[in-house]
Amino acid sequence: MAELTVLITGATNGHGLALARRLAADGAIVVLHGRTSAKAAAAAADLPGRVETVAADLSDLRAVVTLGAEVRRRFPGLDVLVNNAGIGSGPPGRGRQVSADGIERRFAVNYLAGVVLTSSLLPGLSRIVNVASLGQAPLDPTDPLLERSYDGGRAYAQSKLAQIMWTIDLAATVPPGVTVNAIHPGTYMPTGMVAEAGIRPLTSLEDGVAATARLVGRADVSGRFFNGQHEAEADPTAYDPGAREYLRALTDKLLAEFLPAGA
């Protein structure tokens, strides 16, 4: 990893922080993102090697645009983006939440923020890793943002399948030499997200980090979904061109004012 500069979003705790520690120890220059500057600085304080920090609330897409501009200015040699930040299903019974832009919050943070940030940082990147999940659910075109029938688990699963569908589309459009992949690092790792949902961990954090770090270091595969260290099949909807076309149209509509022209 010694020649790589890697931006990891959502890296102040859990999988993101553990991945930052692993990559920094391996010699990468790590750019650690947190929701606030204080959280990012505290997380970076005890990491080895060279660690830089950036901050933005990814539930505010204007802040994501600003973050992208800052990263381009400060780290013009950025090699890898790990879209790791995410919101889980939440505790049972929690009602629907919206982002600063009025979008269902899990869809906004888990999916749309990564689209905006990635679009801002291309074409300088060589690798993009999207931290997705085995928990996947297709969008309902009659209620895609769950305005009529909300469930936190479904909101999370929709956002994660959207990530994978976007991964497949993006891999077909990025410049030669750029790879884009999605990964489910592990099932119910011991993270704050899992604890909030009241779920018993099943996969160690170390195993999840090892799987993601391996994908960060791979340049020979693109447009794929991985379960840990093995390539896997996502929900069949991910491979449906019509479903991906619908997602692209919805994404373009929601992000019309945030994406650069032609993105």
Topology:
Blueprint: E1 5-8, H1 14-25, E2 29-34, H2 37-44, E3 51-55, H3 61-74, E4 80-83, H4 105-121, E5 127-131, H5 152-171, E6 179-184, H6 192-196, H7 205-216, E7 224-227, E8 230-232, H8 241-254
Parallel strand pairs: 1-2, 1-4, 2-3, 4-5, 5-6, 6-7
Antiparallel strand pairs: 7-8
Task: Tell me what you see in this structure.
With 263 residues, this protein is of the alpha/beta class. The protein has a single domain, classed as NAD(P)-binding Rossmann-like Domain (Rossmann fold), CATH 3.40.50. It contains eight helices and eight strands. The protein has an eight-stranded mixed sheet, with helices on both faces. Helix 4 packs parallel to helix 5. The longest helix has 20 residues. The mean pLDDT is 93.
The low-confidence parts are none
**Which range best describes the helical content: under 10%, 10-25%, 25-40%, 40-55%, 55-70% or over 70%?**
25-40%
Q: What's the SSE pattern?
A: EHEHEHEHEHEHHEEH
End-to-end separation in angstroms reads 29 Å
Report on the biggest sheet.
8 strands, mixed
What's the overall average pLDDT, rounded?
93
What coarse outline follows from CA principal-axis ratios? globular
Question: What is the CATH T-level topology?
Answer: Rossmann fold
Provide the spatial order of strands within the biggest beta sheet.
Answer: 3-2-1-4-5-6-7-8
Domain tally: 1
Q: How many DSSP E strands?
A: 8
Quaternary structure annotation: single chain
Give the name of the CATH architecture.
3-Layer(aba) Sandwich
CATH homologous superfamily identity:
NAD(P)-binding Rossmann-like Domain
CATH class: Alpha Beta
- Counted by DSSP, the helix tally is 8
Strand content: 5-15%
The value of Rg in angstroms is: 17 Å
